[in-house]
Fold this protein.
Amino acid sequence: MKSKIILIVGVLVLLLAAVGGTWFFMKSSAPAPMPTEAEGEMMAAASPAMKAPEYYSLSPSFVVNLQNERGMRFLMIEIELMSRRDDTFSRVEQYEPRIRNDLLLFLSKLDREAIATVEQRKKIQEEAMAVINGVLIAESGKGGVDAVYFTKFVVQ
């Protein structure tokens, strides 16, 4: 009889330990409660989300002669613009002839040594962005292009 009581108490202790352990581990890994609609609105107002980027292609490609070359060397670049502001590309489209003109003047000053390394090409990207934003600021009072990407870069 005593052995049956000891056996039953032992099984109950093991059962309680298993239930308690399961509860402990499940409690700590439970997902956080979903915020209510009012809490969600407050969190959205407190931390504004960054707008998704938009892209604009300056087509057709830019083709310029490289300076200080013995033979004829050409540089062809396709340029994509990135912005997170709403009205930037409408202004880029409006002033695209001047933007293309200023970019062509800037690119036509380059020589083969100025485009030889990746670091130099990144510098050209930054300068091209400054040219584009300069036109936008001069014409509309505000810039807006956040990045310039070269999607094709060919030297021939």
About this structure: DSSP finds five helices and three strands in the chain. Residues 2-28 form the longest helix (27 residues).
